[in-house]
Design brief:
about 130 residues, alpha+beta, 5 strands, elongated
Amino acid sequence: MTKILCALMLAAALSACASNGVMVSDDQVKQFKRGETTEAEVLAALGRPTSVTSHNGERYLIYSGAYAQARPASFIPIFGPLVGGADVRSSMVMFRIVGGTVVDITTSQTASGTGTGLAAGAPIEPVSDQPRK
């Protein structure tokens, strides 16, 4: 029984990850057309934005999110903190809306890591399968 409990706890620790906000992938952004897509269509497709700002008759719907995952090597006793680390990916998409229609779309993606894992120049691929709030 103790071995099973230890194995379950180890499996849970190895999948240590956290997400926050709304991650939007490039494929999701491609479905929206400047000058054609309405605010209602964006909201129907992506859900509630992380932030909404209004300025001079324009509205900005902002979807931002981050996903962090510890590398499995982090959980090796004694050496884990030296060789492990974590990877963090984030995305931000801002829709500028005038008169109920999307007139501009701005996107930003970042990737960073701690420890020895994330290779310099690795492609930045935001995680798109995370649950949306």
